[in-house]
Amino acid sequence: xxxxLKSLPIxxxxxxxxxxxxxxEAAIRTLLLWTGDNPEREGLLDTPMRVAKxxxxxxxxxxxxxxxxxxxxxxxxxxxxxxxxxxxxxxxxHCEHHMVPIIGRAHVGYLPEGRVVGLxxxxxxxxxxxxxxxxxEAMTAQVANTIQDILKPKGVAVIVEAEHMxxxxxxxxxxxxxxxxxxFTGVFADSPEDQIRFMTLLxxxxxx
Length: 208
Ligand SMILES: Nc1nc2c(ncn2[C@@H]2O[C@H](COP(=O)(O)OP(=O)(O)OP(=O)(O)O)[C@@H](O)[C@H]2O)c(=O)[nH]1
Ligand SMILES: [Zn+2]
Hints:
GTP Cyclohydrolase I, Chain A, domain 1; five-stranded mixed sheet; 7 strands; binds zinc ion; alpha+beta; 2 domains; hydrolase
């Protein structure tokens, strides 16, 4: 549990009182009134309950510890010394400013140092951080730094590209604009050559 709390972007659990289901549903009912709709009409009667359930699922990253996902490692495959890259990891997150979706993909690579991790675990780490309120910069750094700290490879490279619905659906209303962020740790941090190789491999495709 301590490890979970350490990885959370919040102060400390003692500062926070988790609301009851009834309190959450009342808050959602207030939001329904804020839209101008009538929470008593038939179609909206169960909406507070459904939204509370949906929030539990969309924000389940607060209850998960990325260290657990990265804890099970395998000995490096003999003879393989190069980068391991999992690209096009699709994710959904929510921006911490407006609580509306961020939709994008993450590309995660690392240079193994003795141990490798199951490929799905890289995507799980992305999802854990995506399922919290985020800025794209923070999420990118959290994914890279967590893999670096727990797996301790020679280096980690993470690139995230995403569309922020708060820029598409409201405010400036620029549909299709995407934000690119990157974090390079370990040997990647000081090696433009490795960063370029990572980006070159990301663009490499054997698909027709
Ligand atoms: N750096 C960064 N900014 C973000 C991210 N998600 C949303 N934002 C921006 O956060 C800013 C919040 O700006 P504010 O002026 O406080 O809020 P606002 O009046 O709703 O801003 P507008 O979106 O310009 O209408 C906006 O410029 C958003 O585009 C993110 O992941 N990273
Ligand atoms: Zn936003």
